[in-house]
Amino acid sequence: MSSCKDAQLYDKTWRAPPQWSEDEVEQIKGEIEDYVPVRDVVGSEVMFPKVNILFIGPVGAGKSSFFNTVNSVFRGKVFNQARSGSGVNSITTKFIKYPVLSSITKQPLNFRLCDTRGLEAKFPMSKENLKLLLEGHLPNRFQLEPSGSVSSDTPGFIKYPNLDDHIHCVAFFIDATQVEAMSDLIPDVLQNLKDLQTVMNAMEIPQLVLLTKVDSVCKHVQEDISNIFRSPTVEHCVSKVAEILGLPRYAILPMKNIENEAELNMKLSILTMSNLRTILENADAFLFNKIDEIEQKYQKGE
After folding, report:
1. Span 20-45, mean pLDDT?
2. Is the N or the C terminus of the chain less surrounded, counting Cβ atoms within 10 Å?
């Protein structure tokens, strides 16, 4: 990507941008604070507990950092709860369902961000283990060994998971600096991702991509995050990832996580909240196809 890192910005945006203002931060954050799964299609007597968003991606792509960035926005300060960093092997070794606390009530919001170990060429995730994870059989903080098999006899295994135990949307994490050479640099990891997609597709689970570190491929975005949707370099990365993973361009969400910042940045907060809102909208789209089950099993007071 170095050859086009300095490419001039477009005069017009290639995707409709948010409003880069403090009001926009508060508006989107307020929408997420008030989020109730499928509220617009079920009656007030029905209450689906929480949606679960699964993060999947290569080691160092920024899964844990995204959770920390989301958490920081709601905490109102930089707050690193999930272990994050870079290295050869995954720092995350367990399947963890992270709650996000409301900035108003300090109570968990109606979604959980689920992290799991980063994909490694030597230690791919099996389709069998992913299916069990997506179906809700694996409990919170489950130690997911990359080469280990999981069965109903495994300690902690949930034999009869409810719909609210399931994964309702998957977010892939891809490092923008690796996009151009993805097929050459991480072919085994890429193949693992595509294999896992076949499981998700069969289960009709929505998939999005968080395209991280976009500031590292475009100097204009590095200077000002609001240039993100005018950057031809970022647009190229979005198109390339969409092509590689067979997803529509609108499912590729450019992102920059909090890394070197000591304080929150308003524009970064807007981008984070906007991407999180899109993720929740896709989780709702999955649940929409389960409305009959939700209305039958999730009556308030039962």
Report:
1. 94
2. C
- Write out the two tokens for 283: 């989780």
Residue 88: predicted pLDDT: 44
DSSP symbol at 17: P
Higher pLDDT, 269 or 79: 269
Do 169 and 290 meet the contact criterion of CB atoms below 8 Å apart? Answer: no
C-alpha torsion 128→132→135→136, nearest 10: -160
The answer on pLDDT for 81 being more than 90 is: no
pTM value > 0.70: yes
Classified as helix, coil or strand, 216 is helix
Q: Which residues sit opposite 106 in a β-bridge?
A: none
The dihedral of CA 292, 294, 295, 297: what is its sign? Answer: positive
Q: Are 224 and 298 in contact (CB under 8 A)?
A: no
Give the residue among 269, 241, 239, 247 at the shortest CA–CA distance from 257. Answer: 269
Instruction: Tokens 């679960």: give the residue.
Output: 52
The residue ranking higher by pLDDT, 80 or 139, is 139
* Ramachandran category for residue 62: left, alpha or beta (phi over 0 → left; psi -120 to 50 → alpha): left
Token match 């499981």: residue?
A: 199
pLDDT of residue 123: 81
Q: Are 52 and 112 in contact, with CB atoms under 8 Å apart? A: yes
- Antiparallel, parallel or unpaired: β 142-143 and 169-175: unpaired
Structure tokens at 107: 């109570």
CB crowding 254-268: b at 16 or more within 10 Å, else e: bbbbbeeeeebeebb
| Rounded CA separation 1/174 (Å) | 14
Instruction: Say which CATH superfamily domain 2-287 falls into.
Output: P-loop containing nucleotide triphosphate hydrolases (3.40.50.300)
Counted residue by residue, the chain has a size of: 302
CA distances from 101 to 98, 104, 257 (A): 10, 9, 19
38 half-sphere exposure, CB direction, 13 A CA radius: 26
CA–CA–CA angle 68, 282, 108 (5° rounding): 45
